[in-house]
Write a structure and sequence with these properties.
It contains eleven helices and 13 strands. By secondary structure, the protein is an alpha/beta fold. The radius of gyration is 21 Å and the shape is globular. The structure holds pyridoxal-5'-phosphate (PLP).
C-alpha cells in the first residue's frame, strides 16, 4: 500500500461523488469490515438475499451473527422489500442489499423500512460499479457500500475491493482495521515522511490493497464508463434478438435504474437449463448460473436449518436461470452468434 493506492481511492471517491473510498484486497474483506464497523456480532440477525455469491453470507457468519435469507422479486431478482418486512425480529440489526447483476435494488423503499426499524443498510455492490439508482451512482447515498474488483467484475484490479461511505467514524474504523488496527498512516512507516512509531487501536486485519493493484485500478476507472456503455449496447442487442423467442425471458430493466449489465441472465421457461448449458458448451459458448441459492447449500442447511421450499421465488428463478456471455470486448457478431445458437436450440 502506498501513493498509488491513495490516488486510486481519491479518484474513485471523486467518480462516485462520496466522501470516503477505502480500498481493500477483496469485496469479501470490504463486507466483513462493513459489518464490524457497524458493530454487528453475536446475537444479531442480518437480513440478506439467498440469491447471491456465498461471500455475502459467509461474512455474517464470520462476525458471529445469523444470516436470515429473504426472497427476491421476480422482475429484477433483487431482495423483496415485503419479505424483508416479514423477517424483521427484535434481533435484526442490518440488511445487506445485493444489486443483482448491477441493477439497483429499490433503495428508497428499503431505507424507509430500515429507518422505521432502526436497521443499518449495507450495500453489496460487487456487480454495480457504474450502476445508478435514480440518476445517482451506487455508493453515493451514504450506506456503507462494498465493491468488488475481482477479475470478472465491471472494473478489475485482478483481486480487490473498495468501501464507500460518507461517515467519518465508519471510515476511520475501516482505515485502521484494514491494516492491523494500527494508526491510519502506518503504511508510511518505512518511508522518509513516515514515522516508526505507531499505536495499535484494534486487533485488525491484513486487508489492504497494494499499489500494484491500484495501478491497474486507476486506469480501469478511466475506462469504466466506456466499458458500461459497451455492455449496455451489447445487452440491448441480445434483448432485441432474443425477446421474440417463445419460452425465453430477457432481463427486465426497471425505469430509473441505470443498469451496468455486469450479468445478462435469461430465464428458460420450458427447456431444461442444465441441458441448455451443455449444448451451449458444445457450440463453444460459455455460460454460468448466478446463483445457486445459499439456503440450499450444505453449510447453511446444516448450521441454520434452511430447507427447500423456504424461498419460493428464489427457487423458481434458480431452476430456470442462466447467464450468457457478456463483456465489453465482445463484437456484435459474437452476440448474433450466441443469439442465433439459442434461437435454433429452442425452436
Ligand atoms: C464477486 C462477489 C463478491 C465477492 O467479491 P470478491 O472481490 O471476490 O471478494 C461478493 N458479492 C457478490 C454478489 C459477488 O458477485
Amino acid at each position: 500500500m502506498g501513493p498509488k493506492t491513495l490516488r486510486f481511492e481519491k479518484d474513485f471517491a471523486k467518480y462516485i461523488g462520496c466522501k470516503y473510498a477505502l480500498s481493500v484486497n477483496s469485496c469479501t474483506a470490504a463486507l466483513h469490515l462493513a459489518l464490524l464497523a457497524h458493530n454487528i456480532g453475536p446475537g444479531d440477525e442480518v437480513i440478506l438475499p439467498a440469491f447471491t455469491f456465498t461471500a455475502t453470507a459467509n461474512v455474517v457468519v464470520h462476525v458471529g451473527a445469523k444470516p436470515i435469507f429473504a426472497d427476491i422479486r421476480e422482475d429484477d431478482f433483487n431482495i423483496d422489500p415485503s419479505d424483508i418486512q416479514k423477517k424483521i425480529t427484535p434481533k435484526t440489526k442490518a440488511i445487506i442489499v445485493v444489486h443483482y447483476g448491477g441493477q439497483a435494488a429499490d433503495l428508497d423503499l428499503i431505507e424507509s423500512i430500515a429507518k422505521k426499524h432502526k436497521l443499518i443498510v449495507i450495500e453489496d455492490a460487487a456487480h454495480a460499479a457504474g450502476g445508478k439508482y435514480k440518476n445517482e451512482l451506487i455508493g453515493k447515498r451514504g450506506n456503507t457500500t462494498c465493491f468488488s474488483f475481482y477479475a470478472t467484475k465491471n472494473l478489475t484490479t485482478g483481486e480487490g475491493g473498495i468501501i464507500t461511505t460518507n461517515n467519518s467514524k465508519i471510515a476511520d474504523f475501516i482505515t485502521k482495521n484494514r491494516l492491523h488496527g494500527i494508526s491510519s498512516d502506518a503504511w508510511k512507516r518505512y518511508s522518509k515522511t513516515g514515522s516508526w512509531r505507531y499505536s495499535v487501536e484494534y486487533s485488525g486485519w491484513k486487508y489492504n490493497m497494494t499499489d500494484i493493484q491500484a495501478a491497474l485500478g486507476i486506469h480501469q476507472l478511466k475506462k469504466l464508463n466506456k466499458f458500461i456503455r459497451q455492455r449496455r449496447k451489447l445487452a440491448h442487442l441480445y434483448t432485441s434478438g432474443l425477446r421474440k423467442i417463445k419460452g425465453l425471458l430477457t432481463p427486465t430493466e426497471i425505469p430509473d435504474r441505470y443498469h451496468p449489465y455486469h450479468l445478462y441472465p435469461i430465464l428458460l421457461e420450458n427447456f431444461d437449463r442444465d441441458v441448455f448449458i451443455q449444448k451451449m458448451a458444445e457450440k463453444n459458448i460459455g455460460t454460468s448460473v448466478h446463483f445457486i441459492p445459499l439456503h440450499l447449500q450444505p453449510f447453511y442447511m446444516k448450521n441454520f436449518g434452511y430447507k427447500k421450499g423456504d424461498l419460493p421465488v428464489t427457487e423458481a428463478v434458480f431452476s430456470k436461470i442462466v447467464s450468457i456471455p457478456l463483456y465489453p470486448a465482445m463484437k456484435s457478431k459474437d452476440i448474433e452468434y450466441v443469439a442465433e445458437t439459442i434461437k435454433s436450440m429452442l425452436s
